[in-house]
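Page 47, continued from p. 46.
Same chain as before, 466 aa.
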Amino acid sequence: MGELLADVRYELGADGSDSRYQLVKDTEGALRTGDWIDDKIAEGIAKSDIGLVFLSENYCRSSSCEKELRTFIKLGKSLILVELDDHWTTSDDHPMVALRDELRGLLSIRFWAEKAGKSVRFGHPLPQTATGLAQEGYRQQLQRLVDDIKTMSNSVTDRQVTAAPNQIAPSDDSLVKIVLAASTSDTKTETDRLERVYLDAGFGVTRLDRVSEGLNAAAIRDHLNAAHIFVQVIGAIPGRRVADYKGLPSSVAQHGIAKEVGIEAAVWMPRGFDLAECGEDYAEFLRTVVSHRSSFEDFEAYSVKLARKKEEVIQSDLRREEIFQSVPGEFPPLVSIDAARSDAVLRDKIGAALDKHVLVDYVDYNASMEALSESVRDNDAIVLVYGDQIEGQKRARAHFRFFRRWRKAVWNEEQQRFEIAFGNAAPEDATPCPSGPGIHVIRISSDIDEVSMGAFLSSLGVQPAQ
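Result:
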């Protein structure tokens, strides 16, 4: 738990007093659990924006923890449930079972998985010493937790509260629009949960069971044509018939129209219901549906990831359009510069030097690996800043390993070469900057070395003026 919180703080940059994020833990003095300090707990929770609830077997059996959780719910705070083990989900003999059912639709991140009939805890016994699935799962879920905190914090700032608690009004300017299929009575809980998760993540959501035009083929088609992703939870109940679409049940009709429109789709179908209990035609439809066979939690994470990737593509396209519109005539090469926040001054120095010869784009400080890849899609090169700060050196090496492995994934449509360069301003006693065939190193001290800069520009087909 201590290492997990330390990793979350590091990834959020929450160690400084000027950070956007301040993590407050009840056992660190700000809040103290105990029956006699209920008012103190409520006061501390009232000042918070997001509640991170770390669920374990001990937590589930603690009356003090239950009171804290109920206080979060009573005050309508946004919550992220972090399952440290499987007790919250798989056990029915702890005192919080009723709360578990009440919170079933909330954003949940599991630091455990079932493998070969056994529960594997991620990061066990300690994150730094864990191996195999325990280590890999820990890193993946840590990144997801950090990403979800960031997206939820954005929505907390901008949210418009509706009549229902913890609901966020859809934003008309959301980059990604998701159409959620009209649910049947047996899929409403899952569909409601997906809606909350998508809204918390800042996506625009349209529920087909709430559109003013009613559930008809024309309305379904119009909303799908205006969206980016179609998400459908299919259950054992086929739903009401759509009169103007061959009289087919709503589950079948929505799925068919989505395929006709050609929208990217994510479909989940729960396991377990007996096809023999369904009508013959509907059973045949269920047999042919391409759906995710994973757990609902995995599908939820997959669909958010799918929408996030779509968002990154849109952001990337908008940024390129803005850059290219600012340049008349033939486009010079486009070069991204990636740096840690601690190397901002060096980043700007390299950018100013390159800006005389190429188009320059800056990678967001908080970019994930996927966002990083998307941000340089179709670019000509990237310059990784390698300064005198350990944080920046670690970032540059990690991103270099990523691009060295996935270089072809960011080549443009003409398959032109994607150049990788280091802007090396590290002192001689620092960890050596990576070097080797096909890697450009632009040495920077008080000034930028003109010879190495010239060689890099030449690789891009640019000849600096002498």
